[in-house]
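For reproducibility, we list the full input for the NDP complex.
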Amino acid sequence: LRRNPGEPEFHQAVREVLHSLEPVLRKCPQYADANLVERLVEPERQVIFRVPWTDDAGEVHVNRGYRVQFSSALGPYKGGLRFVPQLSLGTVKFLAFEQIFKNALTGLGIGAGKGGADFDPKGRSDAEVMRFCQSFMTELHRHLGEHTDVPAGDINVGAREIGYLFGQYKRLANRYEAGVLTGKGIGWGGSHARTEATGYGTVHFVQEMLGTRGEELDGLRVVLSGSGNVSLFAVEKAQALGAQVVACSDSSGYVVDEAGLDLDLLKEIKLERRGRLDTYAEARAGARFSSRGSVYDVPCDVALPCATQNELREEHALGLVKNGVKVVAEGANMPCTPDAVAVLREAGVRYGPGKAANAGGVATSALEMRQNAARESWTFSEAEARLAVVMRGIHADCVTAAEEFGTPDDYVLGANAAGFLRVAEAMRDQGVV
Ligand code: NDP
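The corresponding predicted structure, in tokenized form, follows.
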């Protein structure tokens, strides 16, 4: 705490992991040697830089860029870039720390990093976003490389931004290094199913969680937060598996549509028009929009928080439990507060933490790197089939580790322990570095 003042989210993420690793370190004391845990919680490198850019009116703005390269024990640093106005170093560090365990769980040979900027793309023209991305990459490029650090998208960094970032990297590096960024366009090195992967993967993970008790998603009521990249494709997969998806949200409020969300309309509003959810309710008979209360007030069997960190709080968890929720799985990173998690677990709700449940995105990014290295392009169904295999594997590893360390059904312990053991083994083999 003294070493990292003013970084509450980073403290929260580290505390959760270290707490759940206690039985692991008791049973495997070799991993407590050589200050391995102390090394694990200290980023290998963090870069903070100035991002100056000019808006369409000629006014100069200055933002702050970040890249935290947390762990390269298992491969090149890997993790997304996020553009949100309130981004701080502590947020980037928590995300990069979570990424260590998530990326280890995929078993695909990727280290952990995260980055972004305190830039708000809302209301900015394409030309402004392009100039911002070019300036951001002008500094960041010297720290990247297909064998060094491979960013992807995250909140507010989608295909458009990845395109601008890649274009500038290519110009500065003077080479077409496809593997330096993931989430690229399909026509120029991107992988099929990368856009869908996090949302689809979360739903695959939920299917596995339900499957342990012989249940399935077909016919269950699902509620999600957010209506961005992760949420929309979670809706798509959940609907394909027969779920009744009745509500989602954005930063302005939430919509309830008892007839089941109209995904085409949602995609048109959120992806094409970059609009707000109230327009969904205006366009769709029977749907209602609310800017008061929470999407978690809507009764459901499965809740998928897919928006942002610490958005599902204790009061929301109490409401979900009261309304009979069975499964909560995190499409977003750390969307449930510790108090909320405690409520869910005490009530016997099955809870899938983000580092396991949303690992499908980074897994497909690693598969994109694999295709780039081999100069191959798999079909959508091949990429999706591999994603499903990875998610089944992660679920099985979580279950096995939770049983091994004494708390079956505890996905938090399972995810942290299984991820930690892979990283710790590599760190021991590689010596004190
Ligand atoms: P997007 O920017 O595409 O979407 C985020 C969505 O969340 C938007 O609809 C946004 O609303 C909404 N939102 C933001 N804050 C709130 C809030 N307080 N309450 C309700 N809704 C809110 O981001 P992604 O979908 O890519 O990422 C979402 C989460 O998933 C993040 O935690 C991210 O780290 C995590 N994640 C993403 C991966 C990926 O592949 N993209 C991979 C693994 C994890 P609005 O539309 O109004 O802006």
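Residues 204 and 388 are 7 Å apart (CA to CA). The pocket of NDP is lined by residues 153-156, 198, 225-231, 249-252, 306-308, 311, 331-333, 358, 361 (CB under 6 Å). Both points were considered when choosing residues for closer inspection.
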